[in-house]
Specification:
Elements: H1 12-21, H2 33-48, E1 56-59, H3 66-77, E2 81-85, H4 92-100, E3 107-111, H5 118-130, E4 132-137, E5 144-149, E6 154-159, H6 167-170, E7 176-179, H7 185-198, H8 205-213, H9 219-236, H10 242-251, H11 261-273, H12 281-288, H13 292-305, E8 309-312, E9 315-318, H14 320-326
Parallel strand pairs: 1-6, 1-7, 2-3, 3-6
Antiparallel strand pairs: 4-5, 8-9
Helix pairs in contact: 4-5, 7-8, 7-9, 8-10, 9-10
The structure holds adenine (ADE).
Adenine (ADE) binds next to loops.
């Protein structure tokens, strides 16, 4: 498969809702101020030189707006965006077909770039650097390389795992490598205030703050919760208040600091099964029947951000705050030694 519709994890109407909630102008894109300022300069300079912006790499935990930024750049530069992802580009032919179908000035967005295989990466280097597509036809002594000139384009790659990108690939993002950070609660509240207006909801301010507080400081999650709250109040025929937000999110097993059932399972696994750690990621993953990568990409960043776990060279360790949150006493032998 080559170019695929972007995978938002949702289908039908909900999918359209997600794209409807995306900011379409810089002034609607909230937070990530230093990235925004850098990109605005980069885009303005490229426009003055009538040249597509240089290639960009965005990384950071899922849901913080990497894809949203790529869409916004396409809108702001009046370019077409073609989207694909690391696992979708399996064969050299897949990438060749994507690249040869680009028009001048297009943005090629590749999500999950850490999942591109080595062969694909090697085709990508010259394409990024000098706009050349080198394809080897045939095998053995009769093999020959054909070179195709590509139209000027901008690659925007996104990844949750920058360490897994090869150094040569990382070094080819001339426009810059940007790390997206968690948002503040106030920024999340601003994002969902706008979403609520688009969804024709009229929530009380306290209701928005409650969603923001439980949203893992992540716009995608905040917007998902807003939609679930909308379902809840519609079905229960109640107003959107702080109380109904608490009811709706508690039903989804989201607790008062935004932890999900899986987050709490990770903490109780470290505390109860492995006596607070240190315990290796692979051990936690097999104890919970979860993928290591899912724990590392999806759950751990927020648990670390809240100071509930720390990483040590010998594995993950639960902090005092994690014991307190789960209502466990700190074992005598660990007292005074935990962070
Ligand atoms: N949706 C996702 N990220 C956003 C952001 N930073 N601002 C507004 N809406 C968003």
């Amino acid at each position: 498969m080559s170019i695929e519709p972007e995978n938002t994890g949702e289908t039908g109407t909900e999918r359209y809702l997600d794209s409807a909630l995306r900011p379409t102008r810089w002034d609607e894109y909230i937070g990530q101020e230093h990235i925004k300022q850098n990109l605005q300069i980069l885009l303005a300079a490229a426009k003055e030189r009538s040249h597509p912006p240089e290639h960009l790499l965005f990384y950071g935990p899922p849901g913080l707006g990497k894809t949203t930024l790529a869409h916004l750049i396409a809108k702001e530069t009046g370019s077409q965006m073609k989207a694909s992802s690391g696992p979708a580009i399996e064969k050299v032919g897949d990438l060749a077909s994507i690249l040869t179908n680009l028009s001048a000035g297009d943005i090629l967005f590749i999500d999950e770039a850490h999942r591109l295989n080595k062969m694909i990466e090697e085709i990508l280097y010259p394409a990024m650097e000098s706009g050349m597509l080198n394809i080897i036809i045939g095998k053995g002594p009769g093999a020959r390389t054909i070179q195709i000139d590509l139209p000027p384009f901008t690659l925007i790659a996104a990844t949750t795992r920058i360490a897994l990108l090869s150094a040569p690939l990382r070094s080819r993002f001339g426009g810059g490598t940007f790390r997206l950070e968690f948002y503040t609660e106030e920024e999340i509240a601003r994002i969902i205030r706008r979403s609520a207006t688009l969804l024709q909801m009229d929530p009380q301010e306290e209701a928005l703050m409650e969603i923001a507080h439980r949203s893992r400081l992540t716009p995608r999650i905040a917007n998902q919760y807003l939609k679930r709250v909308r379902d809840y109040v519609q079905v229960k025929k109640v107003p959107i208040s702080q109380k109904t937000v608490v009811e709706a999110l508690s039903l989804l097993e989201i607790d008062e600091i935004g932890l999900s059932a899986v987050d709490r399972k990770i903490l109780s696994c470290i505390i109860e099964t492995f006596h607070g750690g240190p315990v290796g990621l692979s051990t936690i993953a097999s104890a919970l029947s979860e993928e290591e990568a899912t724990i590392e990409d999806v759950y751990e960043p927020y648990l670390m951000r809240l100071g509930l776990i720390t990483r040590t060279p010998r594995g993950r360790v639960a902090t005092e705050r994690a014991y307190e949150h789960l209502g466990h006493d700190i074992p005598k032998e660990a007292q005074g030694t935990l962070l």
